[in-house]
């Protein structure tokens, strides 16, 4: 299992899992398609702003960093992060999510966002501190709600603008706004995207989602009123579907896929 580290540490000489990120991709061993496993010193020339320990996976240290460009000659290759997620186990997905957040923290906050001074790594936890003005910076986590809206024996699914050629339907989702509760965000996002009003919003579960830095917070909600009228800037189409006539839906490892499958289980009881 993956156990995150509460504080940074210096990479040791012993072999470790090496999580190197390149935008929306991950460095892998081309022979196994898995995260490479070797001594941290071998990885240091491959990273832009240092290598950071962020936890253990199956008792083995995990190190992360942002890849230099282009990938140096190393015998490694680059794999799309979503593709890696599809074939990885839950323990590796959790490690990837944590590693991505920590690697981005140290790469994107080398200088203080308030006064411009070079920051330093905090010793007690994962963060950076400005020695001039004292600003503390921690890993960026962007909370987003994702909700399975039901109307009796139907669930509301939509096709997003991100993959217009793929007939994939999913539940609705959206980012939290400042000063807004999670429940208010659920109601607002559903209404903005489909003009449907909801009631009985209930929390279900959450999932770290490193695309690039989200925490997906899952809910269920019930139909209250309204007819579907899509926001064409956000989605292509939206419909009510019964459990026995679903379209193509997200994979089971995704929180969206889990919310839909749990609706199917409830419908079949």
Note down, in words, how this protein is organized.
The protein has three domains: 2-108, Nucleoside Triphosphate Pyrophosphohydrolase (Alpha-Beta Complex); 111-140; 142-267, Nucleoside Triphosphate Pyrophosphohydrolase, CATH 3.90.79. With 269 residues, the chain is of the alpha+beta class. Helix content is 21%, strand content 35%. The mean pLDDT is 94. Strands 1, 2, 3, 4, 5, 6 and 7 form a seven-stranded mixed β-sheet that branches. Strands 11, 12, 13, 14, 15 and 16 form a six-stranded mixed β-sheet that branches. The longest helix has 19 residues, at 90-108.
List strands and helices in order, with pairings:
Elements: E1 2-4, E2 16-22, E3 25-28, E4 37-38, H1 40-43, E5 52-57, E6 60-66, E7 77-80, H2 81-87, H3 90-108, E8 120-121, E9 128-129, E10 136-137, E11 142-151, E12 154-160, E13 172-175, H4 182-194, E14 197-209, E15 214-225, E16 235-242, H5 255-267
Parallel strand pairs: 2-6, 11-15
Antiparallel strand pairs: 1-5, 2-3, 2-4, 3-7, 5-6, 8-9, 9-10, 11-12, 11-13, 12-16, 14-15
